[in-house]
């Protein structure tokens, strides 16, 4: 089973993201380029680029990194409400064309200081309805000419992109990733996304969600290729299990000693975030090596649960997700720069081999 492995670039101007000890360079192109080039050298297909109001604009950073790299695929997080669909479709098609098909897109529906950039759509059901319409229209603009569309949120008249995405004449478009654990979010993923991203939940929870999403795709009459699945999780890898767990416990102790700056009120209310927080009640370690203690300290998202262990142990844990049907992996640990090399060299080399029968 072919898998994709991406890293994570936090894209902040302030140091200290998730405990990263690097003190200089944040918010500069040279710093982000160094991370992207290191990802290329150490076996990563690209990286998810962090997004949020008050941070560097993700699409601009992705464009700059695509120009400075050769194979690096930026996974760009975008929000309906921040972008109009025709504007985004044109920008994305241009970057994808110029980079010869290296753009990946992560569409985010969650609120993020929406008032600061003028997004007045606060109600969850309407946000997900808008996201579904956004995805439908973007796909049409990427694949058709003279598009006229009149929806509940967006309207375009006789719209044709030039250039279109790289390889559009053969039916190729940038891959659309999507996250979200609520019933409304799953409707969007099942109908319109290419890849549903999960946080680091235990195997039973991921298996249950994959089964439900496949059934939902069938019931909705999905028009696209079958939905694929991805995992966004922290991987704390050390030479031995003992060393990994010692470092994991030290990191959690450090988290307890500093104020959390990643968890907004909106994120705390999100269904997916609540699922991660609830995992800690089941135990500090689930499955073989899924560490849930960080969730109690407000790690947030991929910082809430960690796969901890030796390269062989973490590889075995990721193979178990792959056996469920997960084929896209977005991994990270801090310090980001040194862990690109460690996790790439020690873990990816194992995962790129055929799975044991």
Describe the overall structure.
The protein is α/β, with parallel strands linked by helices and about 350 residues long. The chain is about 40% helix and about 20% strand. The protein has helices at about 30-40, 60-70, 85-100, 125-145, 185-190, 205-220, 240-255, 265-270, 270-280, 295, 310-325, 335-350, and strands at about 5-10, 45-50, 75-80, 105, 145-150, 155-160, 175-180, 195-200, 230-235, 285, 290, 305-310, 325-330. An eight-stranded parallel beta barrel has the order 1-2-3-4-7-8-9-13, surrounded by six helices. Helix 1 (about 30-40) packs across helix 2 (about 60-70) and helix 11 (about 310-325) crosses helix 12. The longest helix has 20 residues, at about 125-145. Residues about 265 have low confidence and may be disordered.
- What is the H/E string? EHEHEHEHEEEHEHEHHHEEHEHEH
Number of helices: 12
Bulk shape: globular
Quick one: biggest sheet? 8 strands, parallel, barrel
**DSSP helix fraction:** 40-55%
Mean pLDDT over all positions:
92
Tell me the span between the first and last alpha carbons. 12 Å
Strand content: 15-25%
Structural class: alpha/beta
The tally of beta strands, per DSSP, is 13
Regions with pLDDT < 50 over 5+ consecutive residues? 263-267
Strand order of the largest sheet: 1-2-3-4-7-8-9-13
Q: Cα-atom Rg, whole angstroms?
A: 20 Å
């Amino acid at each position: 089973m072919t898998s994709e492995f991406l890293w994570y670039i936090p894209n902040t101007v302030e140091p200290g993201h998730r405990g990263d000890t690097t003190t200089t360079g944040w918010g500069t192109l040279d710093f982000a380029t160094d991370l992207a080039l290191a990802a290329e050298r150490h076996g990563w297909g690209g990286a998810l680029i962090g997004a949020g109001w008050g941070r560097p604009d993700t699409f601009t950073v992705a464009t700059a990194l695509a120009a400075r790299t050769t194979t690096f695929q930026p996974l760009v997080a975008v929000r309906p409400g921040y972008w109009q669909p025709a504007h985004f479709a044109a920008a994305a098609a241009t970057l994808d064309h110029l980079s010869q098909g290296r753009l990946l897109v992560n569409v985010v529906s969650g609120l993020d200081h929406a008032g600061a950039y003028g997004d007045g759509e606060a109600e969850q059901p309407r946000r997900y309805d808008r996201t579904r319409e956004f995805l439908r229209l973007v796909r049409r603009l990427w694949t058709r000419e003279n598009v006229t569309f009149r929806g509940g949120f967006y309207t375009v008249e006789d719209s044709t992109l030039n250039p279109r995405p790289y390889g559009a004449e053969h039916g190729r478009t940038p891959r659309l990733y999507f996250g979200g654990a609520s019933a409304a979010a799953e409707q969007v993923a099942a109908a319109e996304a290419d890849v549903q991203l999960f946080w680091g939940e235990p195997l039973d929870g991921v298996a249950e969600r994959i089964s439900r999403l496949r059934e939902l795709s069938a019931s909705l009459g999905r028009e696209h290729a079958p939905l694929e699945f991805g995992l966004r999780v922290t991987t704390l890898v050390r030479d031995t299990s003992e060393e990994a767990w010692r470092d994991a416990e030290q990191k959690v102790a450090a988290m307890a000693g500093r104020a959390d700056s990643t968890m907004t009120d909106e994120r705390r209310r999100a269904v997916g975030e609540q699922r991660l927080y609830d995992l800690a009640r089941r135990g500090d370690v689930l499955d073989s090596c899924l560490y849930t203690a960080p969730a109690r300290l407000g790690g947030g998202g991929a910082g809430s649960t960690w796969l901890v262990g030796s390269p062989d142990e973490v590889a075995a844990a990721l193979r178990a997700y792959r056996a469920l049907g997960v084929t896209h992996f977005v991994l990270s640990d801090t310090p980001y720069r040194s862990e690109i090399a460690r996790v790439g060299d020690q873990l990816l080399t194992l995962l790129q081999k055929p799975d044991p029968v």
